[in-house]
């Protein structure tokens, strides 16, 4: 299976799904007559990141997965978002960035090495980076964002997490 | 990257990490003088599965990932666990099952089709099953289990989720 298939369709879909959760969060806030901005500061534990940061981290690990495996410099996002409109815009930008990668971008990536900025002198192979760091981190932060919403009564369900499947007829 | 590398090392490691969370949950219960069994029934939303079921689902998606991609029948686990010892035993059995797969077990798996029991007549290619269903579900349930523990004050951190990385020197 190509690295493109492992990265581009699943991650662009996940970021599309996240926008659905945002729509449902706004519906819930409207129904319960509270400011949806309240949810951006919600968290599951006092020493864990709030929803806004979980969404920023989801974007980061999505763009890092594509960029680092392909050996490109990802666009910088300095975590300055404060509103739903701003974080939604970032999700869209990152989704379009990930979607822009073609199979040719990943040619030779099996042999690429990804240096780890937080461990000077150490690195992972690009495939190991994808499967031991980028994907676990991506799903960790996306699921935590989903869990914060669900814990706060937003009507998200498993289908909104998994999204559409690339089905075939038997 | 081989399907073996995408499945066996990351999933066996995740199940190893889950046992670390269980140890930390027991430490927390001991320190706060409550019965750790209380945590098995904890949940983040009234209509979401409790911790015990999240751990059972984590085991299931781990064993399904290996078995279905390799075209084997996974062992059955009827969700009868009620205690920490029982769910810990299941995690170990599933980890050993996943660890038992060799690269040869995945030969030809790129062309395998995985029927979907909940969608009669429909299927996914084995690689799509892995990346659009098994891994998102696995990380969803594992992260939700982690989130339930963290929400309840257990001292789990990100390093306990990600675990050891297959590092190389630069």
From TrEMBL, chains A, B:
<protein>
    <recommendedName>
        <fullName>DUF1993 domain-containing protein</fullName>
    </recommendedName>
</protein>
<dbReference type="Pfam" id="PF09351">
    <property type="entry name" value="DUF1993"/>
</dbReference>
<dbReference type="InterPro" id="IPR018531">
    <property type="entry name" value="DUF1993"/>
</dbReference>
<dbReference type="InterPro" id="IPR034660">
    <property type="entry name" value="DinB/YfiT-like"/>
</dbReference>
């Amino acid at each position: 299976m190509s690295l493109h298939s492992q990265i581009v369709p699943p991650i662009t879909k996940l970021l599309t799904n996240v926008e659905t959760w945002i729509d449902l969060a706004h519906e819930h806030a409207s129904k319960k007559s509270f400011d949806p901005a309240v949810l951006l500061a919600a968290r599951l534990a006092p020493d864990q990141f709030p929803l806004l940061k979980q969404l920023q981290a989801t974007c980061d690990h999505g763009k890092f997965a594509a960029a680092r495996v392909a050996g490109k410099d990802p666009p910088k996002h300095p975590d300055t978002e404060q509103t739903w409109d701003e974080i939604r815009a970032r999700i869209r930008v990152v989704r379009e960035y990930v979607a822009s990668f073609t199979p040719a971008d990943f040619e030779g990536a099996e042999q690429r090495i990804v240096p780890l900025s937080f461990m000077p002198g150490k690195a992972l192979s690009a495939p190991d980076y994808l499967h031991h760091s980028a994907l676990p981190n991506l799903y960790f932060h996306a699921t935590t964002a989903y869990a914060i919403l669900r814990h706060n009564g937003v009507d998200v369900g498993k289908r909104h997490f998994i999204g559409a499947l690339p089905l075939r007829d038997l």
